[in-house]
Amino acid sequence: MSLKISQLDLSSFVQTVVQNKPRLFVIFTILFFCVLSFFSWFLTVATQGNFEDIERLDADAVAGEYIFNAAGCSGCHMSEGNSDRNRLAGGKAFQTAFGKFYAPNISMSLEYGIGDWSLNDFVNAVRKGVSPENEHYYPSFPYTSYNKITDQDLANLWAYWQTLPAIEIDNKAHDIIFPFSIRRPIGFWKSAFMSDRWVADESFDRGRYLVEAVGHCAECHTPRNAIGGLKKQRWLHGGKNPSGSGTIPNITISTLDWSVEEIEEYLSTGFTPDFDMVGGHMAEVIESTEKLSYDDRIAIANYIKSFHIPVLQ
Amino acid sequence: MRRRIYLGMLVTYMDGKFSLYSALSLLLISIMCLKAFAHSDTADPLVKARMANMKVIAASMKSLAKVSRGRVPFEANEVKEILSRIEKSAAMTPGTFEVYATDPTSEAASEIWDNFEDFTSKASNMEVTANKFFMMVESKEQVGDALKALGATCKSCHSKYRN
Predict the structure, then answer these.
(1) Tens of pLDDT along A42-63?
(2) What is the rounded distance in angstroms from the CA atom of residue B39 to the CA atom of residue B35?
(3) What does DSSP assign to residue A103?
(4) Mind spelling out the 3-state secondary structure of chain B?
(5) Nearest-neighbour CA in chain B from A248: distance (Å)
(6) Best of B154, B156, B157, B161 to disrupt the A interface by mutation (most A CBs within 10 Å)?
(7) How far, in Å, CA of A304 to CA of A215, rounded?
């Protein structure tokens, strides 16, 4: 029987090959999967980028401390039962649909932390989610927001980091459900869900920078799809708490009827307009936002009050 | 016999003849369903009571804020009255949580009952703070200080024990 393909009929073509040239079919199938594996390997490889130009910037540790607070590093990486926000021994557990993540030690410890890192290592971690060993970090570390932090802010932040103490406490391994425990496929995830595009337009300027990059509000307040990517069409619409209990509020103007001043007050003191007090993980966020300047809190409040359905840049 | 009656009622629904009887029973069932799904209804009386106690604190803080922001003139007796209310509610708080109770509307974290001693000490921090300001408050600026100090006690408890 001939193998002429007169019409584009893939299924009958395959059927013909299988029936008449089974060995050819097997070879082609093996070749196909080899090519697929090669491209998958290639697309998911984690490589560090070169950020040595950031090292040439003049760094200001005081400005770095401001970003440290605004980015909320302590909120996740501070050890439990400890009130010193500069002791970043990690250990806090974050329950998700993919398993339990434990925040790593990111103190200046040489053995357990990041004491032996260069600025290039730091920027790769924060902007690309890549470790010095060229492994992907899990997106429980919000590099999908942090990737928009400016060069100068990262330089300043690293300068401040040098002043932090080394805490000699070992890291807890994540307890993740197979196959999510394999890091390599995160490369695919990053291609799909990581972007350096802003959601709001440039008129939001400082507010956009604080909400979408440094403050990474969307990482909690935006619902996620089945494989953990943010549903950007539902930006800041809240949803079920991935850690199990309760819901994370919708903070878009369709639901939040607070004034700009009331939002600023909340970010400053934790008091709602009815003088209820913030609870849960948001209380930890207020520990960060209360350290921002009044103008920065107003910028965040203006963003929350003014932005409409996202127009992706 | 009863079975035949129930079957008869079912047939009345199903054959499409909207008799007054079936219309009324449909209405009753709808109301019952609506009631079951209403978010604002807290069914459990213990949960209701402890929420009401928290709301007394919130309302009192709101009144203090009006004074500290100059919207209401400072009156020592009235401010002391408000602070005394907060002190009493804070003192009552552990008691309202002592017996475990839950409800779909409850935001109380289960950690409360795992760490009841710590929970109690946080409530008494509020009580002591309210009392301290009760003794010494003389100006609207000090009312502002009271708000700040009391807010810190609220937050320290809520960050751990509220979802």
Answers:
(1) 888 888 899 989 999 999 999 9
(2) 9
(3) P
(4) CHHHHHHHHHHHHHCCCCCHHHHHHHHHHHHHHHHHHCCCCCCCHHHHHHHHHHHHHHHHHHHHHHHHCCCCCCCHHHHHHHHHHHHHHHHHHHHHHHCCCCCCCCCECCHHHHCHHHHHHHHHHHHHHHHHHHHHCCCHHHHHHHHHHHHHHHHHHHHHHEC
(5) 10
(6) B154
(7) 13
Per the listing, tokens 């779909």 go with: B104
Phi (first) and psi of residue A101, to 5 degrees: -105, 140
Q: Which amino acid is at A116?
A: D
Mean pLDDT rounded to a whole number for chain A: 91
- Rounded to a whole number of angstroms, the distance between the first and last alpha carbons of chain B is 53
The distance of A276 to chain B (nearest Cα, Å) reads 5
pTM assigned to the model: 0.83
Between A16 and A271, residue with greater pLDDT: A271
Q: Report residue A47 as tokens.
A: 């490589």
Tokens of B115: 């760490």
DSSP 8-state assignment for residue A217:
T
* Closest alpha carbon to A245 in A274, A280, A276: A280
Does A128 score more than 80 pLDDT? Answer: yes
